[in-house]
Every structure is written in structure tokens, then in C-alpha cells.
Amino acid sequence: MDISDLPTPALIVYIDKVKKNIKDMEKRSKKYGVRLRPHFKTSKVVKVAELQTAGSKRGLVVSTLPEAEALAENGFDDILYAVPLINDPDKIKRCKALSEKLSEFHVMIDTIDTANLLVSTNLLNGKKWSIFLLTDCGYHRAGALHDSSKLIELAKLLHKSEKIQFQGLYTHCGHSYHLNADKTVKNVADEVVTNLLATVERLKTLGIQCKHYGLGSTPTCSQPTEMMRKVTEWHPGNYVFYDVQQEMLDSCERSDIACMVATRIIGHYSSKGFSHMVVDCGFTALTQQGYGKVPSGGYGAILNHSELKLENLTQEVGKITNVDGTSIDFAKYPIGSMLFILPYHSCATCAMHPVYYVADNEGKIVDKWFPVRGCGSSRDESNIFQYRPPSREDVATSSRRYAFEK
Ligand SMILES: Cc1ncc(COP(=O)(O)O)c(C=O)c1O
Predict the structure, then answer these.
(1) 212: phi > 0 → left, psi -120 to 50 → alpha, else beta; which?
(2) What is the residue with the minimal CA distance to atom 3 of ligand 1?
(3) What pLDDT was estimated at residue 171?
(4) Among residues 241, 275, 306, which one ends one of the domains?
(5) Arithmetic mean of pLDDT over the chain
């Protein structure tokens, strides 16, 4: 199958770019002497996880339990569930099962309540809960503040319990995306590392050792600072695919962006006061993230057509205008022809697609990938079964069956 044969809208992933992005991040972390514990949330594809771990199948971060469960079923271990765990019976039960099944399954917490709950929840065979303490080093989304007494109290509790293996500190620097004239990616990284290292030192003076302490976001790990050598691990995720947002943050070049949405032009419309084309890509194929932030001013970036703007997205339909507001020369864009949209935020765009079409550099479709679906907040345990690795036969016969079949 060639790209031109794809049903649209379709998510295309360029395998060689994915491999290059993964190799580059691996080399960078090696050069800085820091372990890479990559995040799985962007692709949610087991095959990509294999590439991210160089085949070792060890040492990944996930953001949902279905992700962790799919990886565990596929032979992965040393998985960190990096969303604060609370007293939610469904999640505790599933984290308990993963902790008992894997040699290393780590959870992350930021409250005394959860710490107490885990201390009083026994794992089979006397196994210990493995815990990272989520530390807020400036992002202010979640976590115990790095300089707070709460963080010390939590660390002491985790350190002293015989039922807990205290692993150390995890911080995320999501504010490396929110910049202004005084705040560059590098400033944010250095501020976060400074706060993290000070916390590690403070705990050390109390006799509490942190085995691991890391930060990570694709912007910081794509252009690391010297200070980032001083942590034990990085956990970027978006770098596997990158996107227009990362290009704008100088994390990557446009040519590194490894995924895009193929769409077909399905209509030409003009009259007095308007001139636009319609494509079969709406927000269900792209998401509405990033409007106005891309250079064209619309959603995403239309590959090789900087003159065009994806002006509006409704559910399954997008409206394209000329960036400069002039009438479109429709002869240049025949009905049925394809356009390719580079997403502003690939994590969000990929989450819209039950199948990814994998292309080589010649534009041949060489594989199909079936990502883990379901965010896991449902009490319905069918979430667990939404993912099964496809057999060759399944790949050959159907792209859709897997995503929805139990
Ligand atoms: C907790 C956590 N760690 C790591 C990452 C990876 O960051 P990025 O997407 O910038 O690679 C994220 C992303 O949202 C995250 O939420």
C-alpha cells in the first residue's frame, strides 16, 4: 500500500524518523552520563517501547494503567506509573497486581494519605511497594513542593517503612513549554535541577538516600544544560515523534517530525466574501490543540503548503483558507487530493487514532501499529483488555478490529 491509497484521515508515522529521534535522545543521554527512563505516553505502541528501551524492555514511564498493563503483558519490566496514586480502589488493586507480577513496578505519590494506605496494604510474599516521591520543582501542577515540610514528612515516612522501597524523587518540568522573554527552556531546566538537587541534599542530611532523582520533558532533554548531568535520569516522551510545538521550541527540526495526519480535500467553496476548501480531517483526527500558535495561525502545519491555513475544525471536517486571505486557486488543489498536516501536539493527535500507518521513506506503508487505548479512569475493567498485540494475520486483515474488540 502507498500513502496515496490510505483511508483518510489517517495517522502516518515515519519509522526511520522515529528510530533516528530515539537514537539521538539515547546518544544525548549517554553523552551527559544520565540514564534515560523514557515516557511511553506519546506513542503507546509496544513496538516503539521496544525501540525506546533498545530491546531491553526495561525502564519506562507510563501515564495510564492500561499502558502499564499492556507493557507487562508484553514482557516489559521496571515500569514507573508517573501519575499521583490516590486511594482509588480500582487503581490500588491494579497497581498491587502489577507490583506482584513484575520484578519492578514503581508508583508515584505526593500525599501522606496514599503513603499510609500503601504502608498498610500488603503485597504477596512480603514484596515491598516501590515508590517515587513526586516533587514540585516549579511546574506547580502536582507534587509535594521541593522546599516544603510536607515533602520531608513524606520522605521520612517512606524511608522508615519496611514495606516500602523508597526510590527517590521524580519531577516533571511541564513549564519548559511555557516560556517568555526571561524564561528559556534552559533557565527552566537549571531552576528545576537546582531545586531537585537541593532537595536530595536536604534528605541526605536526614539520612534519607535518593537512589534516583530525575527530570524530563522533551524540550529540556532535547537541548540539555550542563546542570542536567547532575541528575540520575531523564524522562522525555514526546521526542519519539516530535511535532510543530517542539519545532517552535527548537527541540527538533521540521524534518524530525515523525507523524502527520493525511487528509483528502473534499470540497471547494467560494462566493462573495469567502473562499475555502474542506478536508476530511476534523478535531477527531487532529485535536484542537495549538490554534493560532503555529506559523500559519491555524491548526497544525500543512506540509509543503505554508500558503494554506487550517482555519477551523469541526468534528470530522476541517476548513482551509489562504493564509493571506486571498481567494484560493482551486485548480492547484484538486478534489480527492491529499494534504498532510503536521500536528501541533503529537501526543494529543496520536491519542485520536486506533491505528497508525507506518511508512518508509519512499512512502510505502510497511506496517500498522495498534496503540494502547483507554485512559484507565473507568471502573470498567474492560479497559485492561482493549489492548492485545496483533498477530500478522490481524495486521493483514483488519486495522479496526483490535482497537474495539474485547
Ligand atoms: C509526568 C511526566 N513525565 C514526563 C513527561 C514527558 O514530557 P514530554 O512530553 O515533554 O516529553 C510528561 C509529559 O506530559 C509527564 O507528564
Answers:
(1) beta
(2) 172
(3) 98
(4) 241
(5) 93
